[in-house]
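Still learning folds. Look over my entry:

…
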Amino acid sequence: MATITHLGVHGRGLPARITSEEEALSVAAKATEIFAVISPDAVGEWLARSGLLAISVPAELGGIDVSNVVLAEIVSAFARASAEAATALTAHFAALELLRGGGTEDQRRAVFDRARQGQRFALARLPTDLQVQLTDVTVEIGKAEEAAALPPDWRIICLQSLQDSPVAMMLARTGTVREDVERSPLGAFIGKTSAPHVDAMLALQQDALLLSTALSRLLTAATVLGRCESELSALISPDQGADDVVDRAERAGLLAVRIETLRGIAHRCGALFDRAQVSPTTQAIEEACRVSTILDVVIRETGLPCPSGEDRAALRAVGNSVLFGGR
């Protein structure tokens, strides 16, 4: 059996405390400069100390609960610096969204306290042969998949309980056993066999997984947006040579179209998501999820090659305007 983990003081030390959306955006804006001088292995530690992992924590639990529009802007900023960091943040914020209304007040406070301590969360990908057995006090797991460039501190596994309501199970990352995680029944280390205490299971609201998936789609689109902005900046760079100007213009035009499309729909999706969190009516939730699905379609469909004929000329015109100010 794996070690039952306990809530305690996090070994990394207290991260910075961010107190406003403006401060969060400022910290995110520094990511490109910082990531250029630190090793990839240090990115996870920088995220833990930055204070950004707590910005979606509800206000009643000590966070600033930034708007989802701002959350998407922050993920886009990170995507311009590191696709891995943006992906890790997307997984983290989607997992916290899942747990926003889950469990008891004490369980929620324990979860969000960990986020405030700089610990990262993510939903676990489950292998098809995962064996789960429900008992009165434990959930025994055959194995769980490890597939992240920046492994989170905590994985969340979604299950259906015997009452057919969704349940989230908290599991700490497999690895070195830290002294601070040996004293509380919040979760267990993933191994060949793990047995988290019943307190590691949080009952979820019926729409929790739906909203978590919708937020993940929004932030994935924000990541694509940031990568497009980064590529467009490279095309505009004075270091670019004069060769293949036509191809550059067409590519710049396509990127400009993708950026404006993603930015507009992502902003609308974020605003709808804010509304659904404040007033979680069926209509508000359905509308936010619908627009997040549209975003998912957009990031797939706009990856197609440049069109031909007049549409191709239109892209060149947009690209020339971006690259050369309309010349």
Observations:
- The first strand starts at residue 4 and ends at 5.
- The radius of gyration is 22 Å.
